[in-house]
Each structure stands twice: as structure tokens, then as C-alpha cells.
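Hey, can you fold this one?
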Amino acid sequence: MSEFLSWTPDDAAAHISVPGDSDDKYTRGVLGVITGSAQYPGAAVLGVEAALRTGVGMVRYIGPRRPTDLVLQRRPEAVASMGRVQAWLIGSGMDAATRNRKTREYMAEAMSQGVPVVLDGGAFDLHDSATGPVVITPHFRELARVIGRDVDTIAADPAEAAVRAAETLGVTVLLKGSTTYVASPEGTRLSVTSATPWLATAGAGDALGGILGALVATHAAGITDDPALLARLAATAAVIHGLSARRASAEGPLTILDLAAEVPSTIAALLRLR
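Sure. Predicted structure:
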């Protein structure tokens, strides 16, 4: 197995898109989001919040009525309709077993568009139906279900599990944990250790998905030219996520909205490293 390269804040800084004077909301990147459910509506709010704070021109949110209402109450700038996007975030706060017909149709449309897709917990089963590049963001238990391995085996060697999953599924894998491992089918192997133990809390993965979705939307054209960029963006998202959590925590407990509020200042600090 290839050795994993530690992905640092300096590395992450080089993978943040900064808008120019001629950019508008469309050229800055549009992220489509299909997340949340009646059971877990907050996942939609957290993902959209994190994506907008990471920096995109627009978020298009598609979901059931209750999470849609909550998203628009929290972030009225979100657009609750289908339309052209540069990337999709799908699956946070969802259960594949309880999808209704409309959700299945929206997901099928998103997966057919050929744009990069970030798949979270409730959509891992869609990885082989995508027509564009895919990155999945499981934790140990989720990856165990996806690749049919024992959780304890994955926990004993998460780096090997990430590589095996990337090679088996043919997608980029971001395996969440105290150390995050990113592996791509092309052979990229990256690790991130910026997280705080206080980040082990509900909603953390939803925010990570939003951060990653935003980065992918703002770099969609580059991913087409360089598929390995998707892995570097995944590692960059983990750095931003971890550093924002440390800022929010100040060595104590945090909430995920606290984390999201720190994303802009974290990105500003990273840009000063350039």
C-alpha cells in the first residue's frame, strides 16, 4: 500500500478558490444539495450553512417540505429549485430505505448530469450510478456496510480500508476519524490530523459535506482536467473542518453551527499562508 502524505494547512491554502473582480454568482460555483429528511431535517440546515460559509455563488437546495422550510428560514439566500449546478452534495441526514419517489427522481437527475458528486451516508448506494467523479464521506461503520467488512477490522487499519474501498468502488474515499484518510482510485493517499476530539458530535459530518461540496463546486472545471484534484479537495475540506472546530471549541465543547460560523475566518487565515 502506498504511504499516506500528511495534508497540511499550507497544502489546503493552495486549494481554496478566491473570486475575482469579473466573477458573478454563477462563475463562483453553484452547489446542488439533496440532503435532510423529515426524521433528520437539521442535516440539511447544517450542510447548507457550511457550504455557504465556505464560499459558493449559490446553493440550490432540493428536499422535503420541512427541511426546505428550515433551510430557507436559516439561509434565505438558498434557492429551492432545480437548475444548473457545478457539483452535488447528496445523502446527509437521509435513509436509503425510506426514499420516496420524488427524492429518487431528483437523485437520478443529479447523478445523470456528469458533474462531480459528494455522497454522504444516505446515498452511498448511488456511487456506481454516477456519470461524473464521485467522493464518498463515510465513518467506520458506514464504510463497513458499503464494502462488507467488519467495523473492528476497519478501525484497526483505517488507512488500508480507505485504499481498499477506493480501489474496489472506483471512487475517492474520505474516511472520517481522529485522523482522516483520503484515497483515490488514481493512487492519491492523504491524511489529515487537524480535528479536535470535541468534534465527535452529531452533525459534524453534515458540515463536512457542505464544506467539501462547496470546494468541489468552485473547482469543478479543474476536476475534469485533473481527477486527482478531487482527493486534494477532500483533504482540504477536512483541514478547514478540523481547524474551524478548533476555533469554535477553544479547548471546550462546541456546536456545529459554532463550527460553521468559524469557517470564513479559518479560510481567511489559510489564505494568508499563500
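The chain has a mean pLDDT of 96. Let me know if you want another pass with a different chain boundary.
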